[in-house]
Amino acid sequence: MIFEVDPDSIAALDSLQLVKLMKRLLLAEARLAGIPLRGASVPLQITVPDGGEDGRISWTGGADSTPYVPARFTILQSKAQDLTKARVKKEVLAKPRKGKPPALNDAVAEVLANSGAYIIFCRQPMTGAKRKALQKAIRDSIKAVGAKPMAAVAIEVYDANLIADWVNRHPAVALWLASVRASRNLAGFQTHEGWGRYPDMSVPWKPSDEPRFAPADRAVPEEERRVKERGSWTYEQASAKVRNFLADPKAIVRIYGPSGFGKSRFAYEVLNNSGNVSDEIDTASVVYCDGSICSDEVVKLALECADAALAAILVVDECNDELHQKLANIVRRTGSRLCLVTMDIETKVLQASDTLSLRVEKADDKLIGEIAKGVAPKLTDTATRFITELAEGFPRMAVLGAQQDGAGRRTLESVEQVLERIMWAGKPPAQEAQRALQVAALFEWLGIEGRVESQAAFVAAQLAEQTTSRFVELSCCRSGRHHLKLLASAARTGWG
User: Fold this and answer.
1) Residue burial 424-442, b: 16+ Cβ < 10 Å; e: rest
2) Rounded to the nearest 5°, which phi and psi values hold at 441?
3) Spatial CA neighbour of 334 closest among 365, 303, 359, 364
């Protein structure tokens, strides 16, 4: 794997990082094993007295164990220091009380009572002989207080070698650990946390009841429609649909719409941790990349993960149809446990039984105003109206305008830069298309067929210097229509 972990990476962690790693591993293992998502929890306040426990996982139904979680009820104790037999013997006992005989700590007692497993999770590398000696010391300590170690399904010591193997079963966890060390080349891949460091993600998120997420491959039932004539979902509805869809391996989500409509931010928020364990598991499983930067590497990573049955949610931004189809075919391979989410401006991938295709539509004026106010709370009503008119339903334009405080020409100078990004997706402008759109944007209405088709013919020949058919094709395609609205809005407000 591109970011494979070795035992030295584990040994270099401090005590807090070790507990964070434990949490990510438990969450990832829960996804891999199909464990009910409410079963995993790990407190991160490691300085608080914990009764011998740093993390636990429990579940009912499904498999009795996983390769690294030996029982349905498993408690883990994280230890950053070097372990000795004397130390682990003491570790499983409660704090001594004057006049009281030695007793097991609460965690070990609970493991024995529930026929569970107890694991000491240690960053130090060990030989097999030392691990066995420590396991025996724990059992001896349990026996010494009159309890029966055989009541536990397993008593284990996970050292740096075993933990490294465990991490390498989960690409998103391995990526997180590589990013923690910072000295590793991550080949353009990021965790969900790293993805969130982009400037666009720092803008306050404004969920809305507006139905602007339209499934392209299925009808929205009337009872789900907030606006009866619109076959679209609200953010909350779309978010729930996407999360439920991604609950199964090999699920594929395709999100498309004009640049600046909020596709990437929508995907980020859908996969963000909202406080419950099921969301945490999704967030911890994300491997994000920009397909325009690392298309070759993401194909290699997907193939390696699919063939090794490694679980992850692979999120690829700027993913054209060719790259999407390559990745989708890999995700569908026998034994694959990958899920795929891709985003791009346009797509022809609309009908596939294992794919949820979702079109992001323009935002209404209310949401645009809320976005602008969220970025600049002191924005005046006049500036907010100006930005709303300028944005023409593009959230990114609202963000840009608000960041410039809606201050007239300053805003428009920055809009020019964003228009280039929205219209050409960071690529060199297509001169022919740009000419057609600039000319068409001069008119509020322009006839293109029937009795008024001579209008388009005249404008095409005299102003755009193009054939009529080519002019109409460039200005009336789906992306052309969105860009035309944006150019016309900019022209109305004084840009250009």
Assistant:
1) bbeeeeeeebbbbbbbbbe
2) -70, -10
3) 303
How many whole angstroms separate alpha carbon 12 and alpha carbon 87?
21
DSSP-derived secondary structure letter, 150: G
Phi, psi dihedral angles at 359 (to 5 degrees): -100, 125
Closest of 293, 493, 474 to residue 382, by C-alpha: 493
Which string of b and e fits 255-270 if b means at least 16 CB within 10 Å? bbbbbbbbbbbbbbbb
Tokens of 42: 């790990």
Instruction: List the structure tokens of 250.
Output: 């090999």
333 C-beta neighbours (distance < 10 Å), count: 14
Gyration radius of the chain over CA positions: 28
| Per-residue tens of pLDDT for the chain, all 496 residues | 678 899 999 999 998 899 889 988 988 888 766 665 544 554 332 223 345 568 888 887 777 888 899 998 999 999 988 899 999 999 899 888 888 888 999 999 999 999 999 999 999 999 999 999 999 999 999 999 999 999 999 999 999 999 999 999 999 999 999 888 765 557 789 999 999 988 888 888 888 888 999 998 888 888 888 888 788 999 999 998 998 899 889 999 999 988 778 899 999 999 986 666 677 778 889 999 999 889 999 999 999 999 999 999 999 999 999 999 999 999 999 999 999 999 998 888 777 778 999 999 988 888 888 888 888 888 888 888 888 887 878 888 788 778 776 555 555 455 555 555 555 555 666 778 777 767 776 676 777 777 777 888 888 888 888 888 888 777 765 444 444 444 445 444 444 4
**What are the φ/ψ torsions at residue 122 (nearest 5 degrees)?**
-120, 140
Residue 74: CB atoms within 10 A of its CB come to 27
Beta bridge partners of 253: 341, 356
State the alpha helices, DSSP H only, in 275-348: 277-284, 291-307, 321-331
CA gap 316, 298 in Å, rounded:
8
DSSP 428: P
Please answer whether residues 402 and 377 qualify as being in contact, where contact means their C-beta atoms are separated by less than 8 angstroms. no
- Helix (H) or strand (E) run with residue 337 in it: strand 337-344
Helix then strand count (H, E) for the chain reads 21, 11
What is the rounded (10 degree) CA torsion for 436, 255, 314, 121?
130
Domains of the chain by start residue, with CATH: 7-169 (no CATH), 192-360 (3.40.50), 363-425 (no CATH), 430-496 (no CATH)
| Contact of 257 with 359, CB cutoff 8 Å | yes
